Amino acid sequence: MHFDHAGIATDDAEGLTSLFCTLFDAPLVHEESFDGMTVRFLDLGNGYFELLEPEEDGTIARYLDRNGPGIHHLAVATEDIEGALETAHENGIEPIDEEPRSGAWGHEVAFLHPKSTGGALIEFVEHG
What we know:
This protein has one domain (about 1-125): 2,3-Dihydroxybiphenyl 1,2-Dioxygenase, domain 1 (Roll). It has 3 helices and 8 strands, in the order E-H-E-E-E-H-E-H-E-E-E. It has helices at about 15-25, 60-65, 80-90, and strands at about 1-10, 30-35, 35-45, 50-55, 70-75, 100, 110, 120-125.
């Protein structure tokens, strides 16, 4: 496994994209509307920033209401997402997703509950 991306909740993905493209020389490499939000991936060379802006009420809108803008989750890439979920289960980690589901960019994803991972929302992602 290796670090894949940090998901950042924002109410201004366009503005944050402009800032990060300039500040980190990180080009925008993918953008889509997905699951009630705009998702933008900026390539840092060794991972991505995933900018998440809500288009409607949903997970990210509720996160912003509760916490304001900031890091929403950290994602780790795996070649075997089902095996990663099984390892998490064997180690007493509570999943949010019992089974992988479709995520942004056509990847399979599964989230682990922050109460089991030291307060961090962790995402497994399998590129497909």
